Amino acid sequence: MTTLDNALFYASNGWKVFPLRPRDKVPTVKWADVATNEVNMIQGWWEFQPDANIGIACGECSGITVLDVDKDHDGYDSLTALALRYGPLPKTPVAKTGSGGEHIFFKYAPGTRNSAGKLGRGLDIRSQGGYVVGASSIHPNGKMYEWVIDPSEAPLAEMPDWMMELLREQETKPVSTSADGFVSGERNNALTQVAGAMRRKGMSEDSIYQALVIHNREKCSPPLTDGEVLQIARSIVRYPPEDEPKTAPRIPTAWDVIDILEADIKEREKNPCDVWGVHYAWDYISLITGGKQAGELIILAGEPGVGKSWWAHQDALFTALGTPSKKIPSTPVLLWSGEMSRKQVYRRFFEMLGVPKRHMLTGNMSNTDWEFFTDAKAMIVNSPIYVSDAALDLKDIRPMLEREIGEHGIKQAVFDYDWLIHSQGSNEIEQSQNISRAMKQVAHDLNISVILISSVNKTGMDTLSENVTKSNVSGSGKKLHDADVIYIMTKFNANKNSDMGIMPNEYDKIASLHISKGRELDYHIPNGVINYMRLSPNPKFKELKDLSKPDALPSWLQRKDMA
After folding, report:
1. Picking from 306-320, 331-345, 442-456, 460-474, which range would have the lowest pLDDT averaged per residue?
2. Rounded to whole angstroms, how far apart are CA atoms 509 and 185?
3. Residue 327 DSSP symbol
């Protein structure tokens, strides 16, 4: 059975389901609002992302309460002690979790909510306000959640009376720091303190997250997003529980690092490909660079009007859309625009997908225009592209990215452009240095690809210069060191044109992308330039590289993933 088949099977039992990120426990939707057993909605979710994991909402909405046995925190020992005292549990559906624990399903026990440790160490309750990962999903460690006792083999049993009684005995009244709970400005600190107390007791990330979600909704006004709550849980589990030894970090030996490198190579050997990072919107640049790498800062610089924002916006959109025909996956992307409103950015997306800009602005839409608009709308709303136009301070970038990673799983962020981000500094050089350093740090720490659009200095404004170098990038020289990759976009230089297929009447439509720095680039590009042509009337950029030609790529570069 496919994951979709299993999701529909759970729905047929009356359980409400929703998608989780592949190989993860993080919802891709606001599950508390949209979890459903409606067939068309479920099919739509899994047709869009077939490898999504399954989330099953617990509590009254699905009619289930689940006992979560955490193997790594003595859950089985606690359960054995309870069984010896009160007797064995009744036969009921049981699933083995990817981490080696169990989910034991009961009929919904009225009055039960998500809780952790009330029945004993490593025993958590998933009920009203909580969810579990459904069988056939894949754990982050690569192991599958599997049924031990399938729901078709045994009906849901009632939760034993003794278990209900123990849960009632352990109920405590919630404590608030004020009459109205935690308000804006207090919420993160308050939830972090709660999470810290849970971690000191040895609770896992998932248990802390599930408990914080309930605490957040009951005590925070307004509540934080589930993604922000997840980041608190993930941050707090970096610290060991009180009963674990605290030691200074050991510097890895060469053997440690080489073992990791070797494991990476062997993992890639299982499915060799020439693009091991996130694909660009174009094939040639993806092949020669290996894609956009997690942890790297890419600077895209150019003079005003040359097309750098168009190029970056097109890359963001089509990275999020993916290319199913080439087996290129959809990748979640955040695009921040300081120059354009969100409405303008989305209108640009519609232009790229074939809807004439002037027809949208004037309202003179033909039936064909509306057909393109409807198709483009379906593509955009079902793709993981997230656009912000809010005023942005440098200190707010990390929290924003942490929230978007937690809530949407973004792997690429685009900032358009650097001088529109407010930064501390006594002058432009210092501000530029602060911005590039912060961008490099968040790319590295959060393990995502960051594209920072920048301007060029006075020399760089002369785009027909014979010498386009990274020193043309505006700001501090420190920016050049922080960047892992530097692209400089210029107008087309006919004097350096080595492609005889480009006609003089096309020169004004072409922008040239110069690769001025590539930390892991191992292939020399002729003239260091990739040319892109602005199409008409659709203003997308087309990469002017015919990969079908014998000399398009060096012989050693295999194009298996482009077949």
Report:
1. 460-474
2. 50
3. T
How far, rounded to the nearest angstrom, does the alpha carbon of residue 478 sit from its chain's CA centroid? 29
Q: Is 56 helix (H, G, I), strand (E, B) or coil?
A: strand
Closest CA to 369 of 355, 388, 383, 357: 355
Rounded distance, CA 307 to CA 312, Å? 9
- pLDDT tens-digit series, residues 220-229: 777 777 777 8
Cβ–Cβ < 8 Å for 468, 462: no
| The token pair that represents 12 in the structure block | 């047929």
Peptide bond connecting 537 to the previous residue in cis, omega within 30 degrees of 0: yes
* Structural tokens at position 490: 């210029």
Residue (of 58, 66, 158) closest to 105 by Cα position: 66
DSSP lists the bridge partners of residue 452 as 299, 415
**Residue 58: what pLDDT?**
95
The DSSP secondary-structure symbol of 495 reads G
The residue behind tokens 């049981």 is 94
User: Is the pLDDT reported for residue 530 higher than 80?
Assistant: yes
Q: Which of 475, 499, 416 is CA-nearest to residue 450?
A: 416
333-337 and 385-388: which strand pairing? parallel
Q: Count H helices, E strands: the chain?
A: 17, 20
424 touches 381 (CB < 8 A): no
431: CB partners within 8 A, 6+ apart: 423, 424, 425
Greatest mean pLDDT range, 213-222, 313-322, 463-472 = 313-322
Tokens 């014998």 belong to 550
**CB-CB contact of 331 with 319 (8 Å):** yes
How does residue 557 score in pLDDT terms, banded at 50, 70 and 90?
A: low
Tokens read off for 106: 């009961």
Which residues lie closer than 8 Å to 327 by C-beta, 6 or more apart?
561
Question: In which order are the strands placed within the sheet that holds 17-20?
Answer: 17-20, 53-57, 131-133
The average pLDDT across 493-514 equals: 80
